[in-house]
């Protein structure tokens, strides 16, 4: 039986199994295994993870391909322009991971500013000598300014959280979208990027990685942040210059960095492991059971709809 749906993972929940009941020509094999490569010849649908980049050369081997499903909202690992030319639909998972990712950005911010990792390490080491007036003093956030890069759903969900802990919120995005005010406070009008950076005690990144955002926060741009600012990234590595950020961190110009994503992940720049005042997570933005199940459902529904639509 020739393969119609070629997936690399069973995903979370029953949805890919259910899809297999409707399309028995579904096959789950490891990415880039010999079986995966062989399946490209007949595949009408590919299902990949955000860590499995597809190239134009891969897709040239798929003459029947109608749809690519990615278990992520980000699509920077797919050759979108090429897919558009060939009429290959891309199904991703917007909407259902908005809250989970914004929660994780807030988690990073609070863990960083309240020195949660250091506190926990102290307790676990058995070295804690008791309450002290100056033990692990962190930074308060209420009344400070939070700059948000990207005014899409995740940026806005993070804005609501930042506002709820008393921060002043500003957005910036390259397209110049005006951000709807949907949580009862006035958001300052959109600023120029340099102005946003100059004012941001906290800068949180919520834009996709595209040709126009890759390297957007260069050494010069990062240097505009006020002394002691905190940088949070749950979007994609590659948006800011990691070496420059580490230099500014070591010089104490940046107060701390919280990262869930890295350029070239999971192969981190080893300097991150030595860097002071950082909280580093292994790309957990969407990692709740509820979210991953909702992502599976959305993705499998989209694949089914694409295949049924194509055969009608
Ligand atoms: C995505 O789905 O693109 C996010 O990076 C998950 O954290």
TrEMBL record:
GO terms for cellular component: cytosol. Residues 106-285 form the D-isomer specific 2-hydroxyacid dehydrogenase NAD-binding domain. InterPro entries: D-isomer_2-hydroxyacid_DH, D-isomer_2_OHA_DH_cat_dom, D-isomer_DH_NAD-bd, NAD(P)-bd_dom_sf. One of its GO terms (molecular function) is hydroxypyruvate reductase [NAD(P)H] activity. Keywords: NAD, Oxidoreductase. Residues 40-310 form the D-isomer specific 2-hydroxyacid dehydrogenase catalytic domain. It comes from the Bacteria. Belongs to the D-isomer specific 2-hydroxyacid dehydrogenase family. This is Glyoxylate reductase. The lineage of its organism: Bacteria, Pseudomonadati, Thermodesulfobacteriota, Syntrophia, Syntrophales.
């Amino acid at each position: 039986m020739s393969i119609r749906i070629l997936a690399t993972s069973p995903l979370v929940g029953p949805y890919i199994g259910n899809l297999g009941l409707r399309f028995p020509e579904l096959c789950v094999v490891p990415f880039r295994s010999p079986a995966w490569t062989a399946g490209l010849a007949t595949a009408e649908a590919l299902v990949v993870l955000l860590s499995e980049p597809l190239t134009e050369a891969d897709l040239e081997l798929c003459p029947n391909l109608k749809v690519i499903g990615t278990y992520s909202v980000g699509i920077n690992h797919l050759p979108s322009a090429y897919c558009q030319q060939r009429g290959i639909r891309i199904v991703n998972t917007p909407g259902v991971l908005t809250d989970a990712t914004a929660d994780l950005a807030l988690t990073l911010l609070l863990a960083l500013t309240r020195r949660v990792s250091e506190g926990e390490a102290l307790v676990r080491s058995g070295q804690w000598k008791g309450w002290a007036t100056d033990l692990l003093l962190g930074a308060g956030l209420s009344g400070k300014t939070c700059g948000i890069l990207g005014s899409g759903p995740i940026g806005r969900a993070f804005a609501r959280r930042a506002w709820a802990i008393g921060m002043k919120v500003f957005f910036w995005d390259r397209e110049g979208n005006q951000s709807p005010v949907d949580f009862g406070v006035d958001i300052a009008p959109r600023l120029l990027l340099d102005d946003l950076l100059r004012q941001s005690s906290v800068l949180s990144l919520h834009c996709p990685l595209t040709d126009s955002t890759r390297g957007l926060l260069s050494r010069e741009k990062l240097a505009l942040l006020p002394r002691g600012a905190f940088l949070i990234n749950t979007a994609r590595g590659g948006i800011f210059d990691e070496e420059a950020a580490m230099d500014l961190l070591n010089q104490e110009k940046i107060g701390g960095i919280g990262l869930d994503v890295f350029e070239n992940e999971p192969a981190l720049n080893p300097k991150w492991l030595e860097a002071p005042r950082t909280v580093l997570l292994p790309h957990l933005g969407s990692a709740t059971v509820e979210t991953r199940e909702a992502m599976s459902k959305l993705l499998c529904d989209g694949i089914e709809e694409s295949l049924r639509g194509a055969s009608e």
